């Protein structure tokens, strides 16, 4: 049964929820009926049980050690996905402030974050890539941040368009930098000290849907107003060790296993970045080699390591590409409806062989149809 299930697994390029390390799924399967030594499944255990608290703290420590997170920061495990962070960030850090929130909009997710922030206070988009159909990323010289802004917000990797910041924007002294890292969390080393908040929903690059990790500098917790709905108040979660209410225990448990995999099987974030660069190059090299057949969306300087977006010369070729790819066990390659074309999501857990199989398929496809 298990061997057959493993055999049936395709190379899954889904943008999220997305492919997971096979070894993690196998460990979860082994432990699902009874977590060794605990007499029940992880799903059946109180979130106050010491066994679960150890799992929670191990996940927190996993994030702290992979990203070098100091005690100046809290690591929170939240629900509501990245979209609830769009609201929580503005509710906690903008509501009642004199400065305005400033946003860099490089794609669909940044735009959706702005739509929530405006409900909480003055919000300004200081750079917007719309004119170029979000194929670009600004550099520091392309905008100016108000030194009295409540915060500077950006999305490090726009999952739908496939554009990624190569380095973080610079925020003036005293302006917290806020980052939606949902689709490139843990794909490379990050200098966390530059951030006020860095957050990510887990279901792209770190685990199953249901948990969102928010790393927040502790001094920012003092901005949260007591009148906020309890769940929306970061301080409640920080003061209660992410146990203000029942956290998503199963998702945190699986996330913990992905963190162990990153540390033990991959060797940390620098090693992960090296692998990710190598994988992405297999596809971008083909886009560069056949620019009139595989028409890349992202400008070369801001290509995403995680989501590779391109079009083919016609809708007919695109459909044929998707149909034939599926026959080669290459799945979920259809681009988002707003951009069209093809999107290959090649997150941390996508093995190199999967990307190589897609690259081989692309070579054959262009040879037959180009
Ligand atoms: C998927 C995604 C979101 C939305 O996440 P939800 O958990 O569905 O709310 C937000 N930002 C980015 C960058 C994403 O990739």
From TrEMBL:
L-glutamate binds at residue 48. It is an enzyme of class 2 (transferase). Pathway: Amino-acid biosynthesis; L-serine biosynthesis; L-serine from 3-phospho-D-glycerate: step 2/3; Cofactor biosynthesis; pyridoxine 5'-phosphate biosynthesis; pyridoxine 5'-phosphate from D-erythrose 4-phosphate: step 3/5. One of its GO terms (cellular component) is cytoplasm. GO terms for molecular function: O-phospho-L-serine:2-oxoglutarate aminotransferase activity; pyridoxal phosphate binding. The modification N6-(pyridoxal phosphate)lysine is found at residue 204. This is Phosphoserine aminotransferase. It comes from Rosistilla carotiformis.
């Amino acid at each position: 049964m298990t061997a057959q299930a493993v055999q049936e697994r395709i190379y899954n390029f889904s943008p999220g929820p997305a492919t997971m390390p096979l070894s993690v799924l196998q460990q979860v399967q082994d432990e699902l009926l009874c977590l060794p030594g605990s007499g029940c499944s992880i799903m059946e255990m109180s979130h106050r049980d010491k066994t679960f608290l150890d799992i929670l703290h191990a996940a927190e420590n996993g994030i702290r050690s992979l990203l070098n997170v100091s005690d100046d920061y809290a690591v929170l495990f939240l629900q509501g996905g990245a979209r609830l962070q769009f609201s929580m960030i503005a509710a906690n850090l903008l509501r009642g402030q004199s400065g305005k929130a400033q946003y860099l909009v490089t794609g669909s997710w940044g735009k959706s974050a702005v739509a929530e922030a405006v409900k909480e206070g003055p919000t300004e988009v200081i750079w917007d890539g719309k004119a170029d159909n979000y194929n670009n990323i600004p550099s520091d010289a392309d905008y100016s941040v108000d030194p009295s802004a409540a915060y500077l917000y950006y999305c490090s990797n726009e999952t739908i368009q496939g554009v990624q910041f190569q380095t973080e924007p610079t925020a003036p002294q005293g302006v917290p930098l806020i980052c939606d890292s949902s689709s490139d969390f843990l794909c490379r080393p990050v200098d966390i000290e530059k951030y006020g908040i860095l957050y990510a929903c887990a279901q792209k690059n770190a685990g199953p849907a249901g948990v969102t990790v928010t790393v927040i500098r502790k001094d920012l917790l003092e901005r949260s107003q007591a009148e906020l709905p309890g769940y929306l108040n970061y301080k409640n979660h920080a003061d209660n060790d992410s146990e203000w209410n029942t956290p998503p225990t199963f998702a945190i448990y699986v996330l913990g296993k992905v963190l162990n995999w990153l540390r033990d099987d991959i060797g940390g974030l620098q090693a992960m970045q090296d692998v990710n660069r190598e994988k992405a190059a297999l596809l971008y090299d083909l886009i560069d080699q056949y620019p009139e057949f595989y028409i890349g969306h992202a400008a070369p300087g801001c290509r995403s390591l995680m989501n590779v977006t391109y079009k083919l010369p016609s809708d007919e070729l695109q459909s044929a590409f998707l149909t034939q790819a599926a026959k080669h066990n290459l799945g979920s390659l259809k681009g988002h409806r707003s951009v069209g074309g093809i999107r290959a999501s090649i997150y941390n857990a996508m093995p190199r062989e999967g990307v190589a199989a897609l690259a081989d398929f692309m070579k054959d496809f262009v040879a037959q149809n180009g």
